[in-house]
Design a protein that fits this description.
The protein is 21% helix and 32% strand. It has 208 residues and is of the alpha+beta class. It has two domains: 142 residues, Immunoglobulins (Immunoglobulin-like, Sandwich), CATH 2.60.40.10; 53 residues, Roll (Ubiquitin-like (UB roll)), CATH 3.10.20. The strands form five sheets. It has a five-stranded mixed β-sheet with strand order 4-11-10-7-8, with no helix packed on it. Strands 1-2 form a two-stranded antiparallel ribbon. It is elongated, with a radius of gyration of 22 Å. It starts with a strand and ends with a helix.
Length: 208
């Protein structure tokens, strides 16, 4: 498995601020050998949004999962505790970043234009604080229906617990992924649920 090697100038366990830590390093002597750490590349997995699903409204909640080898886990937590997962929406000129281990740091975006969007993610490097290219996610495409479903080609009705729920679906969306997304948000893991939703979507498209 590919590995990442970097030099740690400051012990990540120190709680002093950056200036104080740097001062302490200088006092110990300029010739002190920097510690080198090697571990397997972490992986950033985009859990949500699903590929080619249509999200209702104009909001986006990003769920990313950072994975590393079990034997590297403690080292990763020690040296990446102040690093970030950064996301690029719609090929923007800059990424927006959230702390990997920060509290209440679920990425959230509001007021998206209706229609097609793209999303990519990356993990930052402990030494350079720049994105590690090898951790970049494949581009994820998804749609937003808009607050009035203006980007939806069809709106499917599904009965859940005697209540009717509407599912907007844009042209080009994946019916089966839409089914997994709809059922997964409701904690329903039974594949018959996602299959039922997908079939309702396919039937609605067939009537167009």
């Amino acid at each position: 498995m590919p590995q990442i090697t970097f030099t740690t100038i400051i012990d990540p366990n120190l709680e002093e601020d950056f200036d104080e830590a740097m001062k302490g390093e200088e006092e110990e002597g300029e010739n002190k050998e920097n510690e080198r750490v090697t571990l397997a590349f972490p992986v950033l997995d985009l859990v949500l949004p699903f590929e080619r699903v249509t999200l209702p409204g104009s909001k986006l909640t990003i769920v990313g999962q950072v994975k590393t080898n079990d034997e590297d886990r403690q080292t990763f937590e020690d040296y990446f505790r102040y690093q970030f997962t950064c996301y690029n929406l719609d090929a923007a000129t800059a990424h927006a970043c959230w702390s990997i281990y920060g509290e209440n740091s679920t990425p959230y975006v509001d007021s998206l234009e209706p229609g097609l969007h793209t999303l990519e993610g990356v993990i930052t490097h402990p030494e350079t604080t720049k994105g590690i290219v090898e951790t970049s996610t494949p581009m994820r495409t998804f749609y937003t229906a808009g607050d009035n479903n203006e980007a939806a080609s069809i709106v499917v009705e599904i009965e859940v617990d005697t209540e009717i729920t509407t599912i907007p679906v844009a042209a080009g969306a994946d019916a089966h992924n839409q089914g997994f997304y709809f059922c997964g948000l409701r904690g329903i893991e039974d594949e018959s649920c996602s299959g039922y939703v997908a079939q309702k979507i396919l039937d609605a498209w067939a009537k167009l």
